[in-house]
């Protein structure tokens, strides 16, 4: 069935429900999206109840809604509720999963050139501490990941395939479903960093066939900062050791022993912001009510217009390559530093970001890029906003 496109009336409704769109053109959604008003209100109302009722008492009042956040996460990614845990951000989730693997000297991790800086640090640290080897599968000249090269790189020592789905400072995407088929065929643990993906593109962990996945709330999910979640499939939960434990992580304890919980919440700790957890749930509910397929269609449409308009401008280079592109658009203005472009756009109430080399170090070094302007669209952005940005860029050339 064909996905119904978001119509102009709906876009105006979403903008009316997002106060930030009235004063800013926000093209920094890959950094942190503008929260819907209902998400902000949800967090504030909970905090008010904490102040009036007491922290534990407020938690008890909202217990059903807090539990529903897990149900909403599971629905978003097509997982079982027992396979998700709420954490503070994607880096925490990824770190819990990666560092919980029992690496031995000589174990191999396979990744791509698009891997995020935090993950790269994780590989380097495991190399120093455990003596692992990590192999990088480069993209081809067209910017596409080579599945053939991945298969050729796999050996008996390969313990993990770790892939960032959408890179921080590039507009391409990794073929995570096809990579999942190769991982499953070879019985290799498969970890996906979906930090930029959730709320941006449809994510189905059964289709991806990943063992583990990490997500942040603040980016395309439109949730508050300081929110995120991890997924770990039931069959993989005993293959990852919890880094920290408390009374929440266990099922029972005696003076001589303990037993871990029989679900992914063994990877959580008890103390976290209940207000932000509710905000995360409300943001997911908001996106699900719109439809992730429809959101993805709108993002592709707007990103396509932005790339086309930027590509037509003299003195602008669009850096995005690969057959499948996302809502992140990266470009350079000849003779002008990316930081200067960002500042000039900010003077005109337009938010963009600067993608620095270390964020996606292997890719940026390979393409001799020290930084790029990163403009990332969301479904609440408009064609008119893209034109305003392009007009400011044109004036910078004169």
Description:
There is one protein chain. The protein is 40% helix and 17% strand. With 398 residues, it is an alpha/beta fold. The protein has 2 domains: 8-32 and 291-396, Aspartate Aminotransferase, domain 1 (Alpha-Beta Complex); 41-289, Aspartate Aminotransferase, domain 2 (3-Layer(aba) Sandwich). The strands form 4 sheets. Strands 2-8-7-6-5-3-4 form a 7-stranded mixed beta sheet, with helices on both faces. It has a 4-stranded antiparallel beta sheet with strand order 11-12-15-14. A two-stranded parallel sheet has the order 1-13. A hairpin with a 4-residue loop joins strand 9 and strand 10. The longest helix has 20 residues, at 292-311. The termini are far apart.
In short:
The chain is of the alpha/beta class.
Descriptors:
398 residues; alpha/beta; Aspartate Aminotransferase, domain 1; Aspartate Aminotransferase, domain 2; 2 domains; seven-stranded mixed β-sheet; four-stranded antiparallel β-sheet; 14 helices; 17% strand; globular
Give the strand line-up of the largest sheet: 2-8-7-6-5-3-4
Rg result: 21 Å
Give me the count of strands. 15
Beta percentage is: 15-25%
Give the fraction of residues assigned to helices.
Answer: 40-55%
Mean pLDDT: 95
Molecular shape: globular
Number of helices: 14
Low-pLDDT runs: none
Structural class based on helices, strands and sheet pairing: alpha/beta
Q: Report the sheet with the most strands, covering strand number, pairing sense and barrel closure.
A: 7 strands, mixed
Q: Which CATH class of the largest domain?
A: Alpha Beta
């Amino acid at each position: 069935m064909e996905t119904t496109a978001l119509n102009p009336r709906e876009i105006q409704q979403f903008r009316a429900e997002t106060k930030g769109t009235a004063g800013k053109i926000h093209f920094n959604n890959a950094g942190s999206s503008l929260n819907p008003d209902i998400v902000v209100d949800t967090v504030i109302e909970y905090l008010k109840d904490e102040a009036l009722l007491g922290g534990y008492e407020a938690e008890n009042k909202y217990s059903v809604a807090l539990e529903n956040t897990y149900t909403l996460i599971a629905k978003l990614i097509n997982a079982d509720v027992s396979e998700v845990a709420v954490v503070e951000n994607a880096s925490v989730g990824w770190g819990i999963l990666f560092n919980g693997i029992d690496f031995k000297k000589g174990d191999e991790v396979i990744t791509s050139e698009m891997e995020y800086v935090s993950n790269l640090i994780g590989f380097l640290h495991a190399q120093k501490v455990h003596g692992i080897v990590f192999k990088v599968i480069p993209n081809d000249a067209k910017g596409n990941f080579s599945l053939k090269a991945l298969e050729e790189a796999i050996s008996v020592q390969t313990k993990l395939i770790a892939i960032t789905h959408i890179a921080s400072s590039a507009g391409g995407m990794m073929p995570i479903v096809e990579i999942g088929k190769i991982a499953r065929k070879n019985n290799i643990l498969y970890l996906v960093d979906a930090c930029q993906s959730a709320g941006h593109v449809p994510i189905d962990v059964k289709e991806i066939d990943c063992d583990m996945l990490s997500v942040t709330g603040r980016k395309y999910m439109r949730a508050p900062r300081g929110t995120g979640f991890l997924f770990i499939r039931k069959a993989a939960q005993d293959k990852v050791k919890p880094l920290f434990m408390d009374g929440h992580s266990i099922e029972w304890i005696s003076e001589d022993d303990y037993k871990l919980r029989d679900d992914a919440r063994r990877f959580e700790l008890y103390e976290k912001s209940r207000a932000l957890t509710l905000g995360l749930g409300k943001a997911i509910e908001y996106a699900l009510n719109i439809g992730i397929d429809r959101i993805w269609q709108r993002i592709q449409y707007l990103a396509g217009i932005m790339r086309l308009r930027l590509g037509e401008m003299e003195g602008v280079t669009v850096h995005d390559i690969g057959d499948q592109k996302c809502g992140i658009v990266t470009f350079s203005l000849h003779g002008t530093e990316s930081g200067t472009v960002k500042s000039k756009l900010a003077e005109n109430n337009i938010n963009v970001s600067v993608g620095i080399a270390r964020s996606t170090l292997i890719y940026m070094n390979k393409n001799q890029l020290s930084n790029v302007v990163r403009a990332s669209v969301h479904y609440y952005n408009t064609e008119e906003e893209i034109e305003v940005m392009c007009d400011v860029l044109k004036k910078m050339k004169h």
